[in-house]
Amino acid sequence: MDRMFQRIMRGLVETGRAPHYAELARALGLSTDEGRLILHDVMQAYPIGWLHPETDYIASFPPLNNLPTQYRISARGEQRWFAQCGFEATSVTWLFPGETVRIDAPCLDCGDPVTVEMRDGRITWLDPPEIVGHLNYGFGASRGKPQFL
Amino acid sequence: MNLFRSEEHARRWPAFQARAAEGFITLVELAGFFGTQTRRHMLDADYLSAWYPRRAAERRAYLESIGKTTPFWLGTPDA
Q1: Smallest CA–CA distance from B77 into chain A, residue
Q2: What proportion of chain A, given as a percentage, has pLDDT over 70?
Q3: Which domain holds residue A13?
Q4: Residues 120-139 of A with CB under 8 A from B
Q5: Could you give the ipTM of this predicted complex?
């Protein structure tokens, strides 16, 4: 499972999209069905990500998301990536060591831009300077809504 | 788990939950929360087996260090 996890994470970092299980299987020397089954095992072991319901498609693999969100991530001079949520967006910096990572999102209140730049975990630029993080439903399954919302 | 231009913007958001008045975190604290040791190993070959299992305890310790000790933040049942 470690090998598949790494293949997914590195695939996301390199291309901006999560590989399909058939691609993962080929890369790991597995049959396609073995690839599909191990993908499901990985997602069970990493439950903060998920497959799109009723499919084998990776929707979310935090900190990145295969399904676009409002949290656009730019690095290496291009905007290719999306973060799972605003909190996970601040963790993407660790996937690009030594590089500047930019988070761009619309404010959910007014639609005006929220921009953060980070490098190796440090915040290097903020606009506006008053940006805050906000947890709307609380952590824990008993809160009734996915925490990333 | 969102970013807003300011606390006032978050409070004006139509989906803002009354209980979520305790849900604010500064960006510096957020970068610390999502920058704990395990997060720095997401590209390591053994991340899933060796690092990810340590994450929950690490997150809890960080939240406690910044004073976020309520069930809302810790994910524990309400008293």
Answers
A1: A142
A2: 95
A3: 2-61
A4: 121-123, 126, 128, 130-139
A5: 0.95
Q: Which residues of B65-76 are buried (b: 16+ CB within 10 A; e: fewer)?
A: eeebeeebbbbe
- Are both A55 and A76 inside the same structural domain? no
Q: Answer whether residue A137 is part of any domain.
A: no
Query: How many domains in chain B?
Result: 1
List, for residues A73-82, the tens digit of each pLDDT value.
999 999 999 9
Instruction: Tell me whether A112 touches chain B (CB under 8 Å).
Output: yes
What's residue B19's pLDDT?
87
For residue B78, what pLDDT band results from cuts at 50, 70 and 90? Answer: confident
Give the pTM: 0.94
pLDDT band at A140 (very low <50, low <70, confident <90, very high): confident
In angstroms, rounded to a whole number, what is the distance separating the alpha carbons of residues B60 and B36? Answer: 11
**Rounded to an integer, what distance in angstroms lies between the CA atom of residue B20 and that of residue A63?**
23
Residues of B with Cβ-Cβ distance to A116 under 8 angstroms: 3, 27
Nearest to B62 by CA among B73, B51, B53: B73
CATH of the domain at A49: 1.10.10
Cβ contacts below 8 Å, chain A against chain B, sum to 173
Q: Are A42 and A8 in contact (CB under 8 A)?
A: yes
Q: Domain count for chain A, please give it.
A: 2
Confidence label for B38 from pLDDT (cuts 50, 70 and 90): very high
Asked if B40 reaches chain A (Cβ–Cβ under 8 Å), the answer is: yes
Phi and psi, residue B18, nearest 5°: -55, -40
